[in-house]
Amino acid sequence: MTKNLKRNNNYKRFKVSVAPMMDWTDRHCRFFHRQLSHKTLLYTEMVVADAVIHGAREKLLGFDNTQHPVALQLGGSDPRKLAEAARIGSDFGYDEINLNVGCPSDRVQSGTFGACLMLTPELVADCVAAMKAAVDVPVTVKCRIGVDDQDPEIALDDLSDKVFDAGVDALWVHARKAWLKGLSPKENRDIPPLDYDRVYRLKESNPDRFVGINGGVQTLKEAEEHFRHMDGVMLGRAAYHTPGILTDVDPLLEGKPAESFDFTVLIETMADYATRHIAHGGRLGHVTRHMVGLFHGLPGARRWRQILSTEAPRPGAGAQVLRDAFAAVDVSAYEDA
């Protein structure tokens, strides 16, 4: 593993990130995304602190060294346990430890963490302080603008004031409320209206703090608009379903024109990675399921999806399936897509 970032070491260089998404941003997804962008900050799925402390750590936390910069998102509400889990994550080489204060799933609510922690900002601050005392890498929080009947004008300021006082290095805000009563986790991703202006106002009142925005960002053009107000932009489902947009992140952050991307090298890199994974008992589909949307909008994309969806999950499938699927795509049309 590479050397960890030091406390408060220029966190602002992480302008674009891919959101932590349960069942999606696993180690294979992150390896794939890293091939598309060297500068995007990648997040793990949420891992519960108890699982980190008592579970199979290598299985839960292990990752390929090429994934840096990569952040570990933790779930929990016990400051002592979160501090221990943060220390373990830091020892594994993660560049950041993030606390989940935004997930609205039933499983999260039953464990008294995730979005329901918006109701107890003092506890969140205690968790942040304990984690900060345990590690030298940045400690961050990802939250909502409020939950249920909370007034976002009050709830978001209350939480942000307390976690900033506790020393949090960055606050990533999903610009929607979470409705813990009456909406499913899926509905919570779409139905509550986005309120970007509320997050902009939070940044305006905290000019010297890192505040990033998340929620509904579909394109890098939209991200550029957010950059006028915010320190960072977090991409979610858009990065997962149409991962090709990540190929333009590095030129955007470097202020350079977009360059042609060598998809042939990408496919060979992923084929080699998949072969190694299969050799250790894995399946091709574990890797390729994250790649299905790569060529969205290009000639041959439908055939690419069909091959990966039907052939890759078959027992014994090897990396040649990936090459065969790629042969169906006309990547020369990429720049015009």
Automatic annotation (TrEMBL):
Give the required cofactors: FMN
Molecular-function annotations in GO: oxidoreductase activity
Q: Locate the residues binding FMN.
A: P20, M21, M22, Q73, K142, H174, N214, G215, G216, G236, R237
**Keyword Glycosyltransferase included in the entry's annotation:** no
EC number(s) given by UniProt: 1.3.1.91
| Record's keyword terms, sorted | Flavoprotein, FMN, NADP, Oxidoreductase, RNA-binding, tRNA processing, tRNA-binding
Q: Which Gene3D superfamilies match?
A: 1.20.120.1460, Aldolase class I (3.20.20.70)
Q: Which reaction does it catalyse?
A: 5,6-dihydrouridine(20) in tRNA + NAD(+) = uridine(20) in tRNA + NADH + H(+); 5,6-dihydrouridine(20a) in tRNA + NADP(+) = uridine(20a) in tRNA + NADPH + H(+); 5,6-dihydrouridine(20a) in tRNA + NAD(+) = uridine(20a) in tRNA + NADH + H(+); 5,6-dihydrouridine(20) in tRNA + NADP(+) = uridine(20) in tRNA + NADPH + H(+)
At which residues is there a site annotated Interacts with tRNA?
N100, K186, R189, R302, R305
User: What CDD domains does its record include?
Assistant: DUS_like_FMN (cd02801)
Q: Does the keyword tRNA-binding apply?
A: yes
> Active site located where?
C103 (proton donor)
Top EC class for this record: oxidoreductase
Stated role: Catalyzes the synthesis of 5,6-dihydrouridine (D), a modified base found in the D-loop of most tRNAs, via the reduction of the C5-C6 double bond in target uridines. Specifically modifies U20 and U20a in tRNAs.
NCBIfam families membership = PRK11815.1 (NF008774), yjbN (TIGR00742)
Q: Report what the protein is called.
A: tRNA-dihydrouridine(20/20a) synthase
Which gene carries the instructions for this protein? Answer: dusA
